[in-house]
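Customer escalation, tier 2.

The customer says the design service returned an amino acid string that "doesn't look like it belongs to this structure." They asked us to rerun it and document both sides in this ticket. The original structure tokens are below, unchanged.
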């Protein structure tokens, strides 16, 4: 189930991103946004449908991952997962809402709503870090494969750097909703949760603990048995020595008598 959900999420979310060109950047006017919405209104609603189903698949992956986490970082993961889903949902509300009445859309309204959606992307990085960090820590404890821990580390570091896009200048690589968010952070977002779904289909790493029935545990058991037998021989020998000394002492006493 987790690997199927991860693949489903990656396919649906990836297709959704490719269905509609990105919204005009923050250096574009409201009229550019209105023109964009009028040209892609039907595709934007299709995109919202794909993202909705992708979110359902993402919930399956996140729920399965949460079951392997314990302690405070499990709560951190839960909060981060909830924020990720909430931000995706709210951003989809706005983008799909723009496409409902494109002919009546005003330039100022279009620009304002687009700015809200644009700023939701770099702020989402914080929620992604709250999801990636517990996976990294759990991988170090053997709850996930080491390679998914590396993927979580790469994703988390990239998202931490990507937070700078909140204050990035318009028209630059690090502008809000710009190339760094779309062409670097977006693919890493999809690939990380795909990798997490694949990792969840694999058994947990047992770590250094030797399972029951393994040669190491057999050696320990045989060692304990040998120790018990050696210990049981010692009282027998000592009792024999005591019993052996008794006749001698009795004979000496009888000779003296």
């Amino acid at each position: 189930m987790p690997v199927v959900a991860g693949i489903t999420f990656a396919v649906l979310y990836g297709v959704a991103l490719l269905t509609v060109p990105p919204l005009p950047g923050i250096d574009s006017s409201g009229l550019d946004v209105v023109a964009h919405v009028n040209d892609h209104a039907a595709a934007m609603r299709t995109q919202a449908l794909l993202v909705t189903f992708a979110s359902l698949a993402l919930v399956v992956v996140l729920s399965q991952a949460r079951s392997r986490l314990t302690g405070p970082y499990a709560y951190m993961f839960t909060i981060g997962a909830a924020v990720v889903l909430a931000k995706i949902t709210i951003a989809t509300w706005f983008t799909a809402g723009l496409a409902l009445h494109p002919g009546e859309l005003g330039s100022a309204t279009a620009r304002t709503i687009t700015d809200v959606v644009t700023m939701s992307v770099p702020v989402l990085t914080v929620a992604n870090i709250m999801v990636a960090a517990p996976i990294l820590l759990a991988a170090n404890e053997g709850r996930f494969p080491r390679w998914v821990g590396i993927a979580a580390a790469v994703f988390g570091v990239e998202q931490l750097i990507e937070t700078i896009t909140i204050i990035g200048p318009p028209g630059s690589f690090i502008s809000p909703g710009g190339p760094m968010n779309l062409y670097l952070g977006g693919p890493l977002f999809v690939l990380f949760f795909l990798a997490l779904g694949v990792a969840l289909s694999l058994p947990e790493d047992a770590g250094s603990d030797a399972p029951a029935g393994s040669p190491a545990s057999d050696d320990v058991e045989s060692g304990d048995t040998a120790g018990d037998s050696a210990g049981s021989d010692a009282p027998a020998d000592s009792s024999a020595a005591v019993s052996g000394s008794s006749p001698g002492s009795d004979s000496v006493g009888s000779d003296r008598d």
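Tier 2 assessment: The sequence is consistent with the input. The first helix runs from residue 2 to 19. DSSP finds seven helices and no strands in the chain. Sent an explanation to the customer and offered a walkthrough call.
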